[in-house]
């Protein structure tokens, strides 16, 4: 009985870490996407 709440908290913790990691990765991809679009628009203007 005592282990059930612990498993619940561990699951929440893992899900939270997964969301944080996903947001971190997506944030980096958005930055790269912006840089990539800037590079492409710069090349197309020449």
Identify the notable features of this structure and list them briefly:
46 residues, mainly alpha
In brief, what are we looking at here?
The chain has 46 residues and is mainly α. The protein is 93% helix and 0% strand. It has a domain at 13-39.
Explain the overall architecture.
By secondary structure, the chain is an all-alpha fold. The protein has a domain at 13-39. It is 93% helix and 0% strand. It has one helix at residues 3-45. It is rod-shaped, with a radius of gyration of 20 Å. The mean pLDDT is 87.
Structural class: mainly alpha
Please give the share of residues in helix: over 70%
- Please summarize the sheet with the most strands: none
Rg, Å, rounded? 20 Å
Strand content: under 5%
List how many beta strands DSSP finds: 0
Compute the separation of the termini in Å: 69 Å
Spans of at least 5 consecutive residues with low confidence: none
Q: Total helix count?
A: 1
The shape is: rod-shaped
Q: Secondary-structure element sequence?
A: H
User: How would you state the average pLDDT, rounded?
Assistant: 87
